[in-house]
Amino acid sequence: MTVHAQPSTHAAGASSSAPLAETTVRRLALGLSTGALAWSAVSFLYGFNPATETGIKITDLGSLAFQFGAMSLLAIMVRTRATGVSRVARAMLQVERVLLALAMVWSVFHAFLPAERDSVWLGILDAFWPLSMLGMFVIGVKVAVAGRWRGAARFWPLVAESWVVVTLPTMAILGTSVSDVVGAAHLLVGYTTLGLIIAFRPELVRGAN
Predict the structure, then answer these.
(1) Phi, psi (rounded to 5 degrees) for 59
(2) 13-70: per-residue pLDDT in tens?
């Protein structure tokens, strides 16, 4: 019994560490690009803080599309252990998933419950938007340092995930009219491009296991 049990355990371990299928990587990566492109497009049209109800709903849904795309990116990172193999490195991706999920809840409620937009509970959820984006920036740094992803895929997450540290200071210094353009353009250069890099070169991330 012992002789047969050991190969079975080994096989299970090998399966859990098997690299993502190329088609899965491409699908998730294109999900990232599509979501970022959608948010960028509506942001160019309405800005990040529109004044009209229509603009608010559309930008909230655009940001939700981006958040789904970011979840796709995290799925690739988790399966390839992009931040490293230590417990802390793996845990930071799970923490980011929680932060992003709470930010997604805010996006839905803010879009469809206009009467609650000034409520305390929705204000608390709102805090998870910048927290999740800051978390993505930290992850981008960790991916670059860990070096498990290769080539452009190693450093482009840091470019993409610097969105919050580029856009918010721009808003504070130059105002919303400039930061709207900078933020929307950054989504194209950063997350949209990152998704395309991974989709066209999945081997840059699939080698990590």
Answers:
(1) -70, -35
(2) 443 456 789 999 999 999 999 999 999 999 999 999 999 999 999 999 999 999 999 9
Q: Return contacts of 157-162, CB within 8 angstroms, 24+ apart.
A: 157/73, 157/82, 157/194, 159/189, 159/190, 159/193, 159/194, 160/190, 160/191, 160/193, 160/194, 161/133, 161/136, 161/137, 161/190, 162/137, 162/186, 162/190
Handedness of CA 96, 97, 102, 104 (dihedral sign): positive
Distance CA 205, CA 20 (A): 9
* Strand segments (E) across the chain: none
Q: Give residue 139's pLDDT band: very low, low, confident or very high (50, 70, 90).
A: very high
Q: Give pLDDT tens digits for 154-183.
A: 999 999 999 989 998 898 898 888 999 999
**Angle separating helix axes 152-160 and 128-146, nearest 10 degrees:** 160
- pTM (2 d.p.): 0.88
Minimal CA–CA distance to 139: which of 91, 193, 184, 102? 91
d(CA 148, CA 15): 19
